[in-house]
Design a protein that fits this description.
heterodimer; A: alpha+beta; Peroxisomal Thiolase, Chain A, domain 1; 19% strand; globular; B: alpha/beta; 2-enoyl-CoA Hydratase, Chain A, domain 1; Rossmann fold; seven-stranded mixed beta sheet; 29 helices; 49% helix
C-alpha cells in the first residue's frame, strides 16, 4: 500500500558513527540524540517555539531515559508544550520516526516536527537472568531470619552470568534464528559466495573512504573525553578482499560465508531532521534538502528478513517497475542480504512466484547503489539508520542534481521499509 | 480544623496595614501571623518603620491572652528579611547614637525572645544579618529548600559584628564550633546546611510553611521540643568545659588572624564576644556585643566596606545598575576561542544556565573545554549544589563547533581568540556575517583597544569589550568597554550580562589597557625599578602583602606570565603616551625563557603549581647582578615601599580620570578592589590616596 505524502526535510544533521566501545561510548543514546537535535536547531536557525512535536526512533531503550524522545526534546530546548514520543520498529525505527511525522503532517496535526533517531549500542545493558531476578525478589520478601537464610542458600553462582541484551536483540524470537543466520540462509538461496560478499564489503569501505569529504556535509563534530569525532569511525583503509577473506565465519561453522567483515558494524550515533509541510518551508524560508513522496512497509518471512526491501518496494510499486532513481540506498545489514535483494528484484521468476508480479521490480545500477558506502563500512546504529539513510540520500541527490532516490532497509523480525524521496 | 496553605485565606487583619493577620484555626484561641512586608512590595529591611511595626505587634498582641502563637513570614519571592537598614547605619552620627540604635534592636529582640506564646520564623528567601537575628530570637524556625533561601550573619563583611543578639544567640543555639566560622567569615548557608547545623528546625516547601509553623507552635505550647539535636562528645568537651573552650578559642583566634593578616579587627572581636558571652547570662552577653560593635562602627575599615557595599549594588551607580537591569539577557550565546580565557568564560556561562556554542578550529581545545565544563558540573553535583538531572541539562546547553556556524539565532558573541590583530579581524568579520543584526558582538581582548577591532564588525554600534579577568569563574570584576561607536543599549546589554553572571561591572571607555591593566603597567615598572635599585624582590612583595594585597607585584607578574606582561606593555607602550614599557629585568627574563609560574621560574621558582621558597629565582638573581644591582639589604621601611608602588597607580588613575575614561573615581576603587585585590578595608585605590593625604577626610 503506497501513500502520497508531503513531508519536507528542512534541515538535517547527524553525528559521525562511532564504533561500539570507542569514541562515543560514554554518550548515552539520549546524549547523542540531544547533541544532534540541538545542532540541527542551531544550524537551521529555527525558533524552537515553532516545533509542534518530537518523534524519536530508538531500539535499545535506556532505562535511565524512558521515552527518550521527551528527554531529548527538553534537553535540546524544545518548548515543554510540544509532545514527544519514541518509536520502535527494530532496524526501521529511524524510518518510523520520519513516517510518523509524515502521518502527523498529512493529518494536519502540526506543521513542523523534530525527527530524531538515536542509538548507543555501546550502552546496551547486561541483563540478570530471570532466575537471578526471582532470587532477589524472594530475598527481599523473606521476612524471618530463617526464611532469609533459606533463600540465601538457594543462591547459585550461575545465576549471576548475565545475558547480553545486544545478542538477544539480534536474535529473532519467533523463528529462533540469529540475524547472521538469516543472512546465511539468503546466501544459500541465492548462491552467494564468500568471495562475492567480501568483494561487496571491500567496495563499501572503498566508497566510504572516497566519500569522506561528502559525508562531512551531513555530520557535525562530536566532542568526547579524548577529543572530537569528525568522521565515521568504522571505515577502514585495509579492508581489502584478501584481508576480509581471512576472517572467520561467525554464524555457521561449516561452509559458512558471513563474517564480521561482510556484516554491518555495531555502532553509536544519532541523526536529527527538521521536517515540515509546504507552508512551513515558505515560512522559514530555508532551502529544503528534499521531500518524502511516498513510503511503504511490508512483512515477509522472518527467516529471510533480509529481503524486506524488495517486499516493501513492491508495495510501493505493485503494478509497475520502480521508476529510475538517481540514488539507491539498501541498508547493508549484511553483504549477502543486499546482494540477494539486487538479485531478487531483477529475477522475473522470483518476482512472479513470490510477489505475484508480471514484471521484475528493479535493476539497480551498481554506481547508484550506496554510493558513499553503507553500514558495512560506516556502521549500523540500529535505531538511527533509517533516518541516516534519508539524510545521506538527500545530500547525494543534491550533489548529483538528481530528482529521485529510493531508500530501503530490512527489518529484523521479517519486515521491510522503502521510502521514495524527491529533490526539492 | 482547616489548615490554611495560603496565609491570607480565612484570615483577617488585626492591626492596620495588614501587618498582622489572625488565623482562626485553633480551638481555644488563635495564632497571629506577622507579615514582613513593605508598602512597595520590596524586600523587608529592619529600618525605623519596620522596627516600630514589630514593637507595635509585640505590644499589641503580647497582652492578648487569646493569642496562642506568633508566626513571622514574608510574601516576598526571594527575601524573608534583608537585615538592618544599611543606609540608616551610614547616617549614625556619633558613638552615643550608635550605642542607642544597637540597644534598641537588642531590646526589641529580647522582648520577642520572652514573648509569652510560642514564636516561629517561617523563612523563605534571604534571611540575613538582622533578619536572622530576628529569626534566632524566635523559639523555632522553619525554612524552604528553595535555592533562594540563604541564612547567615554577614556583618563581618561590613567590618562590624552581629550585635542585635546574633553573636550571643547563634552560638547558644548551634554551639561555638559551628557558630564561630559562620560569623567570623560572614558565611551564608542554604536550608539543608542550616537544618544540619540546627539553625532551623524543619525544612518544608513554601506552600507548607504555615502548616509547619502551626505544628511547631502546637508542640511548643505543650512544652515538647520541636527538634532534638544531638551533640557529639567531642563537641561537648570542647565547648562545655573551660579548658576545652580555652583550647578552642586559641585555635580559632590563630585561624582568624591568619585570614585577616591583622587588617580587620571585626572577626577577632566577634570571636571574643562569642567565646566570652556564652559563659555569661544573656544581658551581659548583649552588653559585650554593644561594647564591641560601637568602636567598630567608627573604624575606617567599616566606613570603607560600607561604601563598597553601596557602590556594588545600589542606586549610587545608576549608570551601571539602572541601565543594566532593564536590558534583555541573551538566550543563545557563543564564545569564539577555547583557550584558557575562552574555556573559563564558557564554564561561567554554562554555570549560570546560558546556552553556549563554543567555536575553535582546534579539536583539542574543544575537547578540553568540554571536559572542563563537564568536570565542574560533576563537582557541583557531587557537592550537592546541583541535582544530577540539572547537571545533564547544563551540559546539554553546551554545543561545540570547529567552524563559525549555527549562529543564526545567537544574540551575544564573545570573541576570546589568541591576541593577534589579523586573526581577530578575520573572526569578527565572519561572526558579523553569521549572527543576526540585533546580536551584540563582544571581545575579551586585553591587548588591543577595541577601536582597532571595531573596523571588522559590520555595525560597530553593537560592538563592546567584555574584559574578564583570569580565572573568569572566580574574578569578580568585569570591565565593560565602550568603544567610540558603541551604542548605549549595547553597553546596557553588556552590563545586564555581567550582573547575571554575578560580576561587579564597571564601564570603561576605550583605550590601551582599559582601566586595570593600564594601572598595573606603571605599578610593574616601579616594582622593576625598586628591584634594580637593590631592594630585594621578596621584600617588595612582602611590603605589598603587608599592605593587604593578595600578593606582591613580582608574584603577580609570575602568575600572569612575563611574556604576557611584555606583550601587553608593548601594545600599550607603542602609543608612546605613558610610561608603560616593561621593566628591563622582565624583558631579560623573557629572553631567558623564564616566563613565570607556567615555566617553573620567573622572579621566583615554582613546582607543581606552587611557589618553591620565598627567595628570588637563580636566573633573576644572576640578571640583577649583571645589571650591576647592589642589594641594599633588608633594612627598608615596608610601608614606604608599598606607598611608592601604590602612588604610581594613583598618578595613573588620576590621568585616566582626566581623560574621562571612567564615570567616576568610584569605578577606579571598584576596579582595583575586584580586579587586583586592592585591600577593601582601605576603600579602593583613590579612597586610600585621599585618606592618606587627608586623614581628616574619611568618608
Amino acid at each position: 500500500m503506497t501513500q502520497e505524502v508531503a513531508l519536507h526535510v528542512l534541515a538535517g544533521i547527524r553525528t559521525p558513527l562511532g564504533k561500539a566501545g570507542e569514541s562515543l561510548a560514554n554518550h548515552q543514546a539520549e546524549d547523542l540524540g540531544t547533541l544532534a537535535a540541538r545542532e540541527v536547531i542551531l544550524r537551521a536557525g529555527v525558533d524552537p517555539e515553532l516545533i509542534d512535536g518530537v518523534v524519536c526512533g530508538n531500539v535499545g531503550q535506556n532505562a535511565n531515559a524512558p521515552n527518550v524522545a521527551r528527554v531529548i526534546a527538553l534537553r535540546a530546548g524544545v518548548p515543554e508544550s510540544a509532545p514527544a514520543w519514541t518509536v520502535h520498529r527494530n532496524c526501521a525505527s529511524g524510518f518510523e520516526a520520519v513516517t510518523q511525522a509524515a502521518t502527523q503532517l498529512a493529518a494536519g496535526r502540526g506543521r513542523l516536527y523534530l525527527v530524531v533517531a538515536t542509538e548507543s549500542m555501546s550502552n546496551y545493558p547486561l541483563i540478570f537472568r530471570s532466575r537471578a531476578r526471582d532470587w532477589f525478589l524472594r530475598l527481599s520478601r523473606s521476612r524471618s531470619v530463617w526464611k532469609k537464610l533459606k533463600t540465601f542458600l538457594a543462591f547459585r553462582p550461575a545465576m549471576m552470568a548475565p545475558e547480553i541484551a545486544l545478542m538477544k536483540g539480534l536474535t529473532d524470537p519467533v523463528v529462533g534464528l540469529g540475524m547472521g543466520e538469516t543472512a546465511e540462509l539468503l546466501a544459500r538461496d541465492w548462491h552467494l559466495s564468500r568471495e562475492a560478499q567480501d568483494a561487496f564489503a571491500a567496495r563499501s569501505h572503498e566508497k566510504a573512504l572516497a566519500g569522506r569529504e561528502q559525508l562531512r556535509d551531513e555530520t557535525f563534530d562530536v566532542v568526547h573525553d579524548r577529543g572530537v569525532l569528525r568522521d565515521d569511525e568504522g571505515v577502514r583503509t585495509d579492508s581489502t578482499p584478501e584481508r576480509l577473506a581471512r576472517l572467520r565465519t561467525v554464524f555457521q561453522k561449516k561452509h559458512g560465508t558471513v563474517t564480521a567483515g561482510n556484516a554491518s558494524q555495531i555502532t553509536d550515533g544519532a541523526v536529527a531532521l527538521l521536517v515540515g509541510d509546504e507552508d512551513m518551508v515558505r515560512e522559514i524560508g530555508t532551502d529544503p534538502l528534499g521531500r518524502l513522496e511516498s513510503y511503504a512497509y511490508a512483512g515477509c518471512d522472518p527467516a529471510r528478513m533480509g529481503l524486506g526491501p524488495v517486499h516493501a518496494a513492491h508495495r510501493l510499486f505493485p503494478n509497475a517497475p520502480v521508476p529510475e532513481c538517481d540514488v539507491y540506498e539498501i541498508n547493508e545489514a549484511f553483504a549477502a542480504q543486499v546482494l540477494a535483494c539486487c538479485h531478487a528484484g531483477r529475477d522475473t521468476r522470483w518476482c512472479h512466484d513470490v510477489l505475484g508480479r508480471t514484471t521484475p521490480l528493479f535493476d539497480i545500477p551498481e554506481d547508484r547503489l550506496n554510493v558513499n558506502g553503507g553500514a558495512i563500512a560506516l556502521g549500523h546504529a540500529v535505531g538511527m539508520t533509517g533516518a541516516r539513510l534519508v539524510l545521506t540520500a538527500l545530500h547525494e541527490l543534491r550533489r548529483r542534481h538528481g530528482t529521485r532516490a529510493l531508500v530501503s532497509l530490512c527489518i529484523g523480525g521479517g519486515q521491510g521499509g522503502a521510502l521514495m524521496l524527491r529533490a526539492s | 480544623m482547616t489548615t490554611p496553605t495560603s496565609i491570607r485565606t480565612g484570615s483577617a487583619p488585626i492591626l492596620a496595614k495588614d501587618h498582622v493577620l489572625r488565623l482562626e484555626d485553633i480551638g481555644d484561641g488563635h495564632l497571629a501571623v506577622t507579615l514582613l512586608s513593605t508598602e512597595d512590595g520590596g524586600p523587608f529591611v529592619l529600618g525605623r518603620d519596620a522596627m516600630d511595626m514589630i514593637a507595635q505587634v509585640l505590644d499589641h498582641i503580647g497582652g492578648d491572652r487569646d493569642v496562642r502563637g506568633l508566626l513571622f513570614c514574608s510574601e516576598h519571592p526571594s527575601v524573608f528579611c534583608a537585615g538592618a537598614d544599611v543606609d540608616a547605619m551610614a547616617k549614625v552620627k556619633n558613638a552615643n547614637e550608635a550605642r542607642e540604635a544597637v540597644r534598641e534592636g537588642q531590646e526589641l529582640f529580647e522582648q520577642l525572645a520572652h514573648f509569652p506564646a510560642p514564636t516561629v520564623a517561617l523563612i523563605h528567601g534571604a534571611c540575613i544579618g538582622g533578619g536572622l537575628e530576628l529569626a534566632l530570637a524566635c523559639q523555632a524556625r522553619a525554612a524552604t529548600p528553595d535555592p533562594k533561601t540563604k541564612l547567615g550573619l554577614p556583618e563581618i563583611k561590613l567590618g562590624i559584628i552581629p550585635a542585635w543578639g546574633g553573636s550571643s544567640r547563634l552560638p547558644r543555639l548551634i554551639g561555638l564550633s559551628a557558630a564561630v566560622p559562620l560569623i567570623t567569615a560572614g558565611k551564608l548557608v542554604n536550608a539543608k546546611t542550616a537544618l544540619r547545623l540546627g539553625m532551623v528546625d524543619g525544612v518544608v516547601p513554601r506552600e507548607l510553611l504555615v502548616r509547619e509553623g502551626l505544628e511547631f507552635a502546637r508542640k511548643l505550647r505543650k512544652g515538647e521540643p520541636v527538634r532534638r539535636l544531638r551533640r557529639g562528645i567531642g563537641q561537648k568537651l570542647l565547648e562545655g568545659t573551660p579548658p576545652g573552650r580555652a583550647l578552642f578559642t586559641s585555635t580559632a583566634r590563630r585561624a582568624v588572624r591568619k585570614a585577616t593578616k591583622g587588617h580587620y579587627p571585626a572577626p577577632e572581636a566577634a570571636l571574643d564576644v562569642m567565646t566570652r558571652g556564652i559563659t555569661q547570662r544573656m544581658p551581659e552577653s548583649l552588653e559585650l556585643e554593644r561594647d564591641a560593635v560601637v568602636p567598630l562602627l567608627e573604624t575606617a575599615a567599616h566606613q570603607n566596606l560600607l561604601r563598597i557595599f553601596h557602590m556594588t549594588r545600589d542606586s549610587r551607580r545608576p549608570e551601571v545598575y539602572g541601565s543594566g537591569k532593564n536590558a534583555p539577557l541573551p538566550s543563545e550565546t557563543c564564545v569564539i576561542g577555547g583557550g584558557v580565557m575562552g574555556a573559563g568564560i564558557v564554564a561561567l556561562l554554562i554555570g549560570k544556565g546560558f546556552n553556549v556554542r563554543l567555536v575553535d578550529p582546534d579539536e583539542g581545545a574543544l575537547s578540553r573545554a568540554w571536559k572542563g565544563v563537564k568536570k565542574e558540573i560533576e563537582r557541583r553535583v557531587r557537592r550537592g549544589d546541583l541535582n544530577p538531572a540539572e547537571g545533564k541539562m547544563r551540559l546539554a546547553r553546551l554545543s561545540v563547533s570547529t567552524a563559525v556556524n549555527g549562529l543564526r539565532r545567537t544574540d551575544l558573541v564573545i570573541e576570546a581568540a589568541p591576541e593577534r590583530l589579523d586573526l581577530k579581524h578575520v573572526i569578527l568579520k565572519q561572526v558579523s556575517a553569521a549572527v543576526p543584526e540585533s546580536a551584540i558582538i563582544a571581545t575579551n581582548t586585553s591587548s588591543f583597544p577595541i577601536g582597532d577591532l571595531a573596523l571588522a564588525v559590520s555595525d560597530p554600534s553593537r560592538f563592546i569589550g567584555l574584559h574578564f579577568f583570569n580565572p573568569p569563574g572566580r574574578m569578580p570584576l568585569l570591565e565593560v568597554i565602550r568603544g567610540e561607536h558603541t551604542s548605549d543599549s549595547a553597553v546596557a546589554r553588556g552590563l545586564r550580562l555581567a550582573l547575571a553572571l554575578g560580576k561587579t561591572p564597571i564601564v570603561v571607555c576605550d583605550g590601551p589597557g582599559f582601566l586595570v591593566n593600564r594601572l598595573l603597567g606603571p605599578y610593574f615598572v616601579e616594582a622593576g625599578r625598586l628591584a634594580e635599585e637593590g631592594v630585594p624582590i621578596p621584600l617588595v612583595d612582602e611590603a605589598v602583602w603587608r599592605f593587604g594585597m593578595p600578593m606582591g607585584p613580582f608574584r603577580l607578574m609570575d602568575e600572569v606570565g612575563l611574556d604576557i606582561i611584555v606583550d601587553a606593555s608593548s601594545h600599550v607602550g607603542d602609543r608612546g603616551e605613558y610610561e608603560h614599557k616593561a621593566p628591563p629585568l622582565v624583558e631579560r627574563l623573557v629572553e631567558q625563557k623564564k616566563l613565570g609560574k607556567k615555566t617553573g621560574e620567573g622572579f621566583f621558582r615554582y613546582a607543581k603549581g606552587r611557589r618553591r621558597g620565598k627567595k628570588t629565582g637563580p636566573t633573576c638573581a644572576r640578571l640583577l647582578k649583571e645589571l650591576g644591582t647592589q642589594s641594599s639589604g633588608t633594612d627598608h621601611d615596608l610601608q614606604s615601599i608599598a606607598n611608592r608602588l601604590m602612588g604610581r597607580m594613583v598618578a595613573e588613575a588620576r590621568r585616566i580620570i582626566g581623560e574621562d575614561l571612567v564615570l567616576s573615581g568610584e569605578d577606579v576603587d571598584i576596579g582595583t578592589i575586584f580586579g587586583i585585590g586592592f585591600p577593601p578595608f582601605r576603600g579602593g585605590l583613590l579612597q586610600w590616596a585621599e585618606t592618606t593625604a587627608h586623614p581628616e577626610r574619611r568618608s
